Amino acid sequence: MKNNPQRQRHPVIPLTIYAVSLFCLLVPISASAQAVTECIVNAAQVARVGAASRGVLARFGVGRADTVRTGDVMAELEASQEDSEVRLARLRLSSDIAVRLARRKAETAEANAARLTTLLQNNLVPKSEQENALLEARTARLEEEEAVLQQKIAAEQLEAALAARERKRIRAPFDGVVTDKLMSVGELYNEQEPVVVVARIDPLHVEAYLPAARRAGISLGDTVDVVLESRARVQAVIDVIDPVLDAATGTFGIRLRLSNPEGRFLAGQSCAIHFE
């Protein structure tokens, strides 16, 4: 049977041209996938805070979601004994009676020694009496020094009492928000248990992992776009690039700093980083 010369034949596409065309179609998709990296938004710091002493939890000064500043008292343990010791130390320090009394006694003894020295020069008193007066004067000055020392000790005792009182307070370690209260008033607290959880949310930290091939394309201080779960598109700055790869995944970690002065962005949400 003869072939029909009118029969249409499909053109044969060379394999090389086909491969190039397929590559051109796939490259934009691959490049786009590499330009977007999953990430997560974390609080810059999270602290589980407690007191430096044992005791019964007496009061809370904050509630969940309250904003705190560095040094704010968030809770206190019962401290009636420490308060009493502070008052006593202040009373001791506020009184200079012992110092004034010792100084007046020393001045009187020195005046008496000077008078007897004059009398001795005129042979009106025995030398032993004048020597006793000098000894009493020197002793009185030493007693004055002792009184001054006791006042300095009272100042140190006040500092110690105030420090003991401070150990009953639980203060905010940084500016942030209270995310949890782990105990209730009346519970016995020990040094191993936290009482309040505080998170620093300005700035926020955006954590991500990139393949090793991307290491040469980023630098500290670079600004990149971050898309949050709320679809908000914000800018963050790279402030940490891990110097060591994860051998198991062939990736390295980066951390970006996301400014959040008004607390609009929530920590804990997932996100995506868009590189240019």
Summary keywords:
30% strand; 4-stranded antiparallel β-sheet; alpha+beta; 3 domains; OB fold (Dihydrolipoamide Acetyltransferase, E2P); Elongation Factor Tu (Ef-tu), domain 3; 276 residues; 6-stranded antiparallel β-barrel; elongated
Describe this entry's structure for a reader.
The chain has 276 residues and is an alpha+beta fold. It folds into three domains: 34-44 and 200-274, Efflux pump adaptor protein, beta barrel domain (Elongation Factor Tu (Ef-tu), domain 3, Beta Barrel), CATH 2.40.30; 46-77 and 168-197, Beta Barrel (OB fold (Dihydrolipoamide Acetyltransferase, E2P)), CATH 2.40.50; 81-166. The chain is 37% helix and 30% strand. The strands form two sheets. A six-stranded antiparallel barrel has the order 1-8-11-10-9-12. A four-stranded antiparallel sheet has the order 5-4-2-7, with no helix packed on it.
